[in-house]
Recover the amino acids of this structure.
């Protein structure tokens, strides 16, 4: 594929000659702007409420049990029982879950 070599000065001369002769390219029509700009629709942020729990997890991060936040001792006890029973480490970690409001 051969590219046609076009000289910039030749193109300018042709454009000037066409302008002098009254032959011009039609210009694109400007877009009509409406009187009132369109209002943007902002997404209303919803309030998300979270509640804290204690979760007992195994070594592969699977949640085994869930306790209320005030029941940390029971969660630790459950984790130690599972660790002794299954010979794999279980641990307690805080978990936050979304509260659904009706």
């Amino acid at each position: 594929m051969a590219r046609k070599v076009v000289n910039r000065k030749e193109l300018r001369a042709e454009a000037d000659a066409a302008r002098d002769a009254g032959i011009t390219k039609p210009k694109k029509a400007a877009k009509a702007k409406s009187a009132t700009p369109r209002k943007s629709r902002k997404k209303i942020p919803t309030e998300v409420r979270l509640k804290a729990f204690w979760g007992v997890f195994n070594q592969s991060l699977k949640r085994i049990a869930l306790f209320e936040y005030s029941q940390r001792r029971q969660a630790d006890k459950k984790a130690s029982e599972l660790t002794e029973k299954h010979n794999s480490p279980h641990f307690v970690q805080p978990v936050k879950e979304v509260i659904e409001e009706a």
